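[Discussion] Sanity-checking designs against the backbone

I'm trying to build intuition for which residues belong where. Below is a structure token string of 70 positions. I'd appreciate it if someone posts a full sequence so I can compare it with mine line by line.
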């Protein structure tokens, strides 16, 4: 698997985690503490996503990440 593929996979997982967290906030009867924990988790996923997106864009722009990692 190439570096770009791994980053894209990670981005997909993070987006799904954010989506699920937001859905949980909207539909599940969570306690106040549960809501705080869910929001904190979403914020962590968003922070990770914001780190990966520029890296993915750089790899795409420079045509790197096409060779499998060892």
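Best answer:
Here's mine. Compare freely.
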């Amino acid at each position: 698997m190439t570096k770009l593929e791994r980053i894209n996979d990670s981005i997909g997982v993070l987006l799904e985690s954010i989506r699920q967290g937001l859905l949980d906030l909207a539909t599940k009867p969570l306690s106040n503490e549960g809501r705080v924990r869910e929001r904190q988790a979403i914020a962590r996923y968003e922070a990770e996503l914001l780190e990966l997106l520029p890296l993915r864009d750089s790899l795409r722009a420079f045509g790197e990440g096409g060779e499998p990692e060892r």
